[in-house]
Design a protein that fits this description.
rod-shaped, single chain, mainly alpha
């Protein structure tokens, strides 16, 4: 990958390699005790226990508080999840029981409505048949009365007509009789 470019300028890789070599060949760093700097600043002035140092104790206490808060929050989240799951389960059970009760009530109500409808239909049919028969009887009775009246009227007219006919025929065949004879 060390292809020279068309302008005979060194590539980036070549430049980086050269810069690294120049850094290594530069002056060596002096040897010194690096830890001495930290020891000088944090050298204990007397023997104090760790809990009597306010910053260390505060740091430890706040760390314990933070860990306990995380644990409590995690525990609380687990409890919330368990409570939510249990509540959802109880609600689902109650809903299924309610649904079954509603289905049974609807089935019973439907059955009662069908029975009531059948009973009402039967009663209505019986009442209609009774009404029709009563109406037919009354109409037939009225028709029969009219027929009997018509027959009687016709019979009276026929009797009167035939009586007149017989008189005429009788008068034509027999001479009139005197009452005294």
């Amino acid at each position: 990958m060390n292809k020279p470019s068309s302008n005979n300028k060194p590539s980036f890789e070549q430049w980086l390699t050269d810069a690294g070599e120049q850094y290594r060949s530069a002056e060596n760093m002096p040897e010194w005790d690096r830890e001495a700097i930290f020891r000088a600043h944090y050298r204990p002035t007397g023997k104090l226990s760790w809990w009597s140092q306010p910053m260390a104790f505060a740091s430890f206490a706040l760390s314990c508080l933070a860990v306990s808060l995380v644990v409590v929050q995690s525990y609380r989240a687990d409890i919330d999840a368990q409570v939510d799951a249990r509540v959802a389960e109880i609600v689902e059970q109650k809903l299924s029981v309610f649904e079954e009760q509603q289905k049974m009530r609807l089935a019973q109500q439907s059955k009662d409505l069908r029975n009531d409808f059948r009973e009402q239909l039967s009663t209505s049919t019986t009442q209609l048949a009774t009404y029709i028969l009563a109406t037919n009887r009354q109409e037939r009775q009225a028709d029969m009365e009219n027929l009997v009246e018509y027959v009687n009227d016709t019979r009276e007219e026929d009797i009167t007509f035939y009586a007149q006919q017989l008189r005429r025929v009788g008068m034509q065949n027999h001479p009139p009789m005197l009452e005294n004879e």
